[in-house]
Amino acid sequence: LLLCFKFRTNAFDGRYCRIFLEIPDAQASGNCPQSNTLSIHFGLCAPSTCTPQEIIQLAQMVTPHAISAGCETLHSWPLSSQIFLIALVFWLCVLIIGTFIDEIVQCISIPRNANMALSTKRSHKYHSIQGLQVITVSVIVAANCFIYILPYLENVLFTYENVFTWQFHPFNNFTYHIDGLIAIDTLLTSLLVQNMLETTDDIKKLYLNRLLQVLPVFIFIILFMTFLYERLSSGPIWMHDDLITRCKDSWWKNILFINNFFSSGQTCLDGGYLYSLIIQFFLLLLPMLYLSKRFYTAILAVAVSSIFASIIYIFYEMSTTKMSPTLLLTANPISPEIYKTYIDLLYTKPWARAPAFLIGFLFSFLFVGQSTIYNELLLAAPLILLIVGLFVIFGLYPYAIGNSIPQIFLAIYSALHRPLWAFVICSLVYLRYRNRNIGRLLHFLEWRIFSPFAKNIFVVFLISEPVSLYLFSSLHRPLHATVWSLLNIAIGTIILSNFVAFVLDILITMPIQNIVFELLKDKKCDGLIHTEGVHSSLLSDSKKDIK
Q: Which stretches are transmembrane (predicted)?
């Protein structure tokens, strides 16, 4: 890279490129029994006018082992990136001006929005949900870091050696936490809005509110990834052509929240499928809550039947296709094609992730009225939940370390582990709500500091990928991984992702949301306070019910 920089003259404008080679491996490591190809990156300084496709064609004339090529970002900015940067600077100027003339443009005041975003005031009594949301998304982000870092390690075998340690397994098998996130988000939303759905107009207002919370920041992230992300750094391993291309080609599928109906290559960021799932489930949730007031038994029957139908569907697919039961590293490497099939067929699809949503919906009815659950069962519940939780967390440990596991067990685990974890998480919230003594953990989860962080959990999940990729690929050499270095990177990614999420909430989401509601309602923006996913202007007619 440095030589390429020195070679740049008026006569030669070069840029650093890498050719990815797969060399057949004749020997196998003791912890990696399969003989796979060796992945080697060959660097060269090519003319800036050469495209990666032309470079790989040239390389394949020399060696058949050349697979792909990537080059550093061109130094010249395309017009589209310049336009987006100018628009971003203009918007920031508007926000700054609105801050200094607060009386005129109070909806976009940065201090006002910052105070609202960082407020620890809570408008409901389901406080442990917020702690669970923050802890859950932090675990997901930390576990994702161990996956994203793999292409940037010089000792890749370190990660596969950790597969054999049981302490690492909860971070290896972690995707069920996403279902827990879906379940408690559905539970909290149901509890907050179920007393507000008197007419269909209330449903429309809540749809608009949710759209204003999600869409502006989502569009901004997609535009930023498309036009500016590749300009943030440079270096021999700073190459994200595939990521940028995905964002450019699939932007409309992401904005319409339908990217999870297509293949995994049709999403901008890996976390985009969760955004689509949350919106799709929210579209179903409000009519279900509205109809449950009139057809309670029928709605419950449909929800329970749908849970069993989804479980049976997953069991059938796992039994017939013999896919991986979930996404995790194993001692016996699984081909990327198998993972891709699992992602496209089950992992991102709403009909396969619906049980978590339906469990959160059903649990919301337990919080209303008197409990019909026997006290003896409530006393035994902590032990039952502990056993179920340990099964979900460590049930695939023998499979991960290379033991032969019957396909029937893998199919059962794949079909049940996500609904079981959603049930465990919702049960913890319910037990705390009923003031059952289940340890000091849930007292910690009710800590007020979790309140502002819980508002941005889905943004944190989404942007943690580009944040972690920035930390890894902006280095000028591969990273030598140790337990402590990975832990520090995971903590840094969590902190930086939360910081960026707050900045986006203050500078993008809240100003746009406040402006729209100011235009729709002849009220001051002081009354438009962001409250746990429900805009307070929509609560104005239901304050008595909430109290």
A: 83-110, 131-153, 173-194, 206-229, 272-291, 298-316, 351-368, 377-401, 407-431, 452-472, 484-508
**Mean pLDDT for each 10-residue chunk of the chain (547 residues)?**
62 75 62 60 78 81 78 73 81 72 65 85 83 94 88 79 89 94 94 85 88 92 89 78 85 92 88 93 94 91 96 94 89 86 92 96 83 64 89 94 90 95 92 66 80 92 92 80 86 94 91 82 43 40 37
The partner residues of 17 in beta bridges, in order of sequence, read 44, 71
Residue 180, amino acid: G
Q: Which residue has the tokens 């395309």?
A: 78
Structure tokens of 36? 């796979």
445 backbone dihedrals φ, ψ, rounded to 5°: -65, -20
pLDDT of residue 371: 58
pLDDT at position 346 is 92
What value does the CA radius of gyration of the chain take, rounded to a whole number of Å? 25
Residue 351: which residues within 8 A CB-CB, separation 6 or more? 310, 313
247-252 long-range Cβ contacts below 8 angstroms, 24+ apart: 247/222, 251/222, 251/226
User: What backbone torsions phi and psi does residue 165 show, to the nearest 5 degrees?
Assistant: -95, 130
Q: DSSP characters for 262-276?
A: S-GGG-SSTTHHHHH
Segments making up each domain of the chain, as ranges = 2-71, 106-538
| pTM for this entry | 0.82
Distance (Å) of CA 115 to CA 85, 105, 388, 520: 27, 16, 41, 23
CA distance 53 to 221: 28
What is the enclosing helix (H) or strand (E) of 148? helix 127-148
pLDDT value of residue 532: 45
Helices 350-363 and 296-321: angle between axes, nearest 10 degrees: 140
Which amino acid would we find at residue 336?
Answer: P
Buried b or exposed e, range 37-59, using 16+ CB within 10 angstroms: eeeeeeeebbebeeebeebbeeb
